[in-house]
Amino acid sequence: MSDLPNCPKCHSEYTYEDGSLFVCPECAHEWTLESETEDQKVVKDAYGNVLNDGDSITVIKDLKVKGSSSVVKIGTKVKSIRLVDGDHDIDCKIDGFGAMKLKSEFVKKV
After folding, report:
1. Which of 28, 34, 64, 90 could form a disulfide with 102 if both were Cys (CB 3.0 to 4.6 A apart)?
2. pLDDT by residue (tens digit) across 50-95?
3. Exposure of 43 in the CB half-sphere (CA atoms within 13 A)
4. What gap in Å lies between CA 41 and CA 3, rounded to an integer?
5. Distance between CA 104 and CA 49 in Å, rounded?
6. Which CATH architecture is the domain 1-36 placed in?
7. For residue range 9-40, what is the model confidence (pLDDT) as tens digits?
8. What's the Cα-to-Cα distance from 4 to each of 12, 23, 44, 72, 76, rounded to whole Å?
9. In sequence order, what are the beta bridge partners of 78?
10. Which domain of life is it from (predicted)?
11. What secondary structure letter does DSSP report for 88?
């Protein structure tokens, strides 16, 4: 039985070692054990609660919408968020505004 980890991308069990890298022959993904743990970025709201995909959040500050004169008001509830990499780490749809990207420091988990 092999002690090699499954592929983090496609979960294939047919991985092999190539020097310091692990390689998946099915999806051609290459990784190291160090990069596998670094990929697990933890996103927290303004109060330190850990956010996950599918969570519901509330906006805790009036936010100006870039390129528009409208404002997302404090207390606006957002359902089914998606976490993404980047400066704005929450991707969501807000009723009346459409698709938006938010920073986690301006929301709280419901």
Report:
1. 90
2. 999 999 999 999 999 988 899 999 999 999 999 998 889 999 999 9
3. 25
4. 25
5. 10
6. Single Sheet (2.20)
7. 888 999 999 888 899 999 988 888 765 544 56
8. 11, 10, 32, 48, 46
9. 57
10. Bacteria
11. S
Strand order in the sheet with 107-109: 77-78, 57-59, 107-109
Give the per-residue pLDDT at 62: 96
pTM above 0.70, yes or no: no
Asked if pLDDT for residue 1 goes beyond 50, the answer is no
Supply φ then ψ for residue 21, to 5 degrees: -105, 155
Tokens representing 89?
A: 């780490």
**Distances in whole angstroms, Cα of residue 103 to Cα of each of 22, 25, 58, 106:** 34, 37, 12, 6
Joined tokens for residue 65? 């919408």
Query: Residue 48 forms beta bridges with which residues?
Result: none
- Going from N- to C-terminal start, the domains of the chain cover 1-36, 56-109
